[in-house]
Amino acid sequence: MLAPTEQLVDGDGVRLRVLQAGDPGAPVVILAHGFPELAYSWRHQIPALAAAGYHVLAPDQRGYGGSSAPEAVEAYDIHALTGDLVALLDHVGAEQAVFIGHDWGAMVVWHTALLHPDRVRAVAGLSVPPIPRARTRPTQRWREKFGEDFYMLRFQEPGKADAEMAADVTTTMRGMFNDLTPSAPPGWITDDEFDHYVTEFGRTGFTGALNWYRNYDRNWESTPQLTEARITVPSLFVGGTADPIAPTMNPARAREVVAGPYTEMWIEGAGHWVQQERPDEVNRILLEFLREVDS
């Protein structure tokens, strides 16, 4: 298997730390992590995809790890996040890539296919399916559907959740990876792997990551053009049947936004952190999807 190397890539006002592997002349695959993760979350996928003949790029996205963390909340809107991924394509001189995202990263790659369709060869989302543009403001919808204690509403106030999460990073990460139960790290992650996350978030804190959530309403307000937009490239959704965030999603609405070839795959018993929990199955599904795209 091909071990990744690390490089810093300058984009539109930010510098991204990027893990890359594979032949620079090969078809490009860009991997976008979620919350609270890192490029390291793709450690099982990067070498497998590179060995299969792809040039793989996995950034710490803005606000995370070794990448820039702008102070302004609005610096984390969907236009900036999708622009960062497109800038990676420009950096390697490629016209298109297959974009694969997990959790928040899935939302970013789905939007990349909508906002930058000419740069997307195909797109895959893990744990978060493609869903159509909301009819109402996101925070309003959450209050009506889930109540004021919904975690994404609690994340809206700058500073509060940031301080709570940073006060004990080990407990925070245990809770996240154990589906909000702060026990020992789950069996799918080694102590060394878990410590990597604790070290990185202990150094950076969570403000950059939480600022993504603080742009939900801004993203909605700034994308009215997406009401009728459709994803036309080959698309894949992979979910875990035991994912606790599943009730907040609605994969049945995927066809309202995806007009091209679409595949939905479920991994029995897998939770939210599917590419880390079940890497062999996820790698098999992704490689099959890539072969179909290339055929």
What does this protein structure show overall?
With 295 residues, the chain is α/β, with parallel strands linked by helices. It has a domain at 5-134 and 220-294: Alpha/Beta hydrolase fold, catalytic domain (Rossmann fold). It is built from twelve helices and eight strands. It has an eight-stranded mixed sheet, with helices on both faces. Strand 3, helix 1 and strand 4 form a beta-alpha-beta unit. Helix 7 crosses helix 8 (191-204). It is globular and about 50 Å long.
What structural keywords apply?
alpha/beta, 37% helix, 16% strand, 295 residues, 12 helices, eight-stranded mixed sheet, Rossmann fold
SSE map:
Layout: E1 5-10, E2 15-21, E3 28-32, H1 46-51, E4 55-59, H2 78-92, E5 97-102, H3 104-115, E6 120-126, H4 138-146, H5 151-154, H6 160-166, H7 169-177, H8 191-204, H9 207-213, H10 216-221, E7 235-240, E8 262-267, H11 274-277, H12 279-294
Parallel strand pairs: 3-4, 3-5, 5-6, 6-7, 7-8
Antiparallel strand pairs: 1-2, 2-4
